């Protein structure tokens, strides 16, 4: 956490316009770390068939809704995140007020909603019914269960070999990656799961969103004077993934680096490419 705090200070100095969002990120991360410290979640028992399906059919070990959750801790974290959100910006403050009112009037069954693992459709439905900004509501729900999800992923880590999966979706939970990472001197490439945070190896020339491997239709650009950040474009599906190049950067939280390089997303979108898994902190 301390390392992350230092990095946030560095980034804020370098790109002051991201100051507000970086501070918000830091507060949320600290609240999550605190929740994680006293989390109680059930052990995940894997059936033998599941591992066979993983190696033979390429199924993920579990599904998003199979992660065991500490509902009490998630509900408590939700309240904390609401408080943080109130100070973040006026739009968030307005939304949180509406959410708190709905909670007080028992119009939201928070624990049940969390129990369902924050199923996107359910969350969206509740947001619609209550006239809430679905993105804000979903952000708060997802970040409240995140410590449980990450703890579940940690339990399953030893079941997998991150070097041999080589697919465009997460072997733990089947979700799409939100970022790609280049590591070690040779630039081994990894994908980072948008849901559980697992990292797995992938080919250097590969679009995780459409499985394209043709050199001619895969290109990239770096940020100006920013060799640590790269946008990998695919001309087949017209989508892109952001790559953090750790050969040019000290190890740091990739999501933090993602926030601090929003200008590159803007460039990619101006070039006509879409990001399938948007940066959750800004959309
Ligand atoms: Zn995952
Ligand atoms: Zn593609």
Structure, explained:
The structure is a single chain. This protein is of the alpha+beta class and 283 residues long. Helices cover 46% and strands 14% of the residues. The protein has helices spanning 2-14, 19-37, 48-57, 71-88, 90-104, 110-115, 120-130, 134-156, 254-259, 262-270, and strands spanning 177-183, 188-193, 199-202, 218-223, 226-234, 239-245. Helix 1 runs antiparallel to helix 2 (19-37), helix 2 (19-37) runs antiparallel to helix 4 and helix 2 crosses helix 8 (134-156). The chain starts with a helix and ends in a 13-residue tail after the last helix. One zinc ion is lined by residues 170, 172-173, 175, 193, 195-196, 198.
Q: What is the topology?
A:
Layout: H1 2-14, H2 19-37, H3 48-57, H4 71-88, H5 90-104, H6 110-115, H7 120-130, H8 134-156, E1 177-183, E2 188-193, E3 199-202, E4 218-223, E5 226-234, E6 239-245, H9 254-259, H10 262-270
Helix pairs in contact: 1-2, 2-4, 2-8, 4-5, 4-8, 7-8
Summarize this structure as a short list of keywords or feature phrases:
283 residues, 6-stranded mixed beta sheet, 46% helix, binds zinc ion
Structural class: alpha+beta
Give the H and E element order: HHHHHHHHEEEEEEHH
Q: Average pLDDT value?
A: 93
Q: What spatial form do the alpha-carbon principal axes imply? A: globular
- Our count of helices gives 10
Strand content: 5-15%
Helicity, as a percent range: 40-55%
Q: Spans of 5+ residues with little confidence (pLDDT < 50)? A: none
User: What is the C-alpha radius of gyration, as a whole number of Å?
Assistant: 19 Å
* DSSP strand tally: 6
Sequence of strands across the biggest β-sheet: 3-2-1-6-5-4
- End-to-end C-alpha gap: 25 Å
Largest sheet: 6 strands, mixed
The ligands found in this model are: zinc ion
């Amino acid at each position: 956490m301390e390392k992350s705090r230092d990095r946030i200070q560095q980034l804020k100095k370098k790109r002051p316009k991201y100051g507000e969002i970086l501070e918000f990120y830091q507060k949320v991360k600290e609240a999550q770390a605190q929740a994680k410290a006293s989390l109680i979640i059930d052990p995940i028992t894997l059936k033998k068939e599941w591992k066979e399906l993983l190696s033979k059919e390429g199924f993920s070990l579990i599904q998003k809704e199979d992660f065991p959750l500490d509902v009490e801790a998630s509900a408590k974290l939700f309240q904390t995140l609401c408080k943080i959100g109130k100070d973040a910006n006026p739009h968030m403050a307005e939304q949180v007020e509406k959410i708190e009112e709905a909670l007080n009037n028992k119009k939201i069954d928070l624990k049940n909603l969390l129990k369902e693992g924050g199923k996107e459709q359910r969350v969206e439905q509740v947001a619609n019914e209550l006239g809430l900004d679905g993105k804000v509501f979903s952000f708060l729900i997802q970040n409240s269960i995140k410590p449980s999800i990450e703890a579940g992923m940690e339990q399953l880590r030893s079941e997998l070999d991150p070097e041999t999966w080589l697919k465009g979706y997460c072997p733990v939970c089947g979700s799409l990656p939100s970022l790609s990472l280049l590591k070690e001197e040779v630039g081994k490439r990894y994908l980072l799961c948008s849901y559980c945070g697992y990292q797995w190896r992938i080919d250097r020339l590969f679009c995780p969103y459409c499985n394209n491997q043709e050199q001619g239709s895969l290109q990239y650009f770096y940020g100006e004077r920013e060799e640590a950040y790269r946008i990998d474009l695919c001309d087949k599906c017209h989508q892109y993934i952001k790559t953090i190049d750790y050969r040019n950067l000290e190890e740091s939280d990739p999501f933090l680096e993602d926030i601090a390089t929003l200008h590159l997303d803007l460039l990619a979108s101006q070039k006509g490419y879409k990001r399938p898994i948007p940066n959750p902190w800004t959309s």
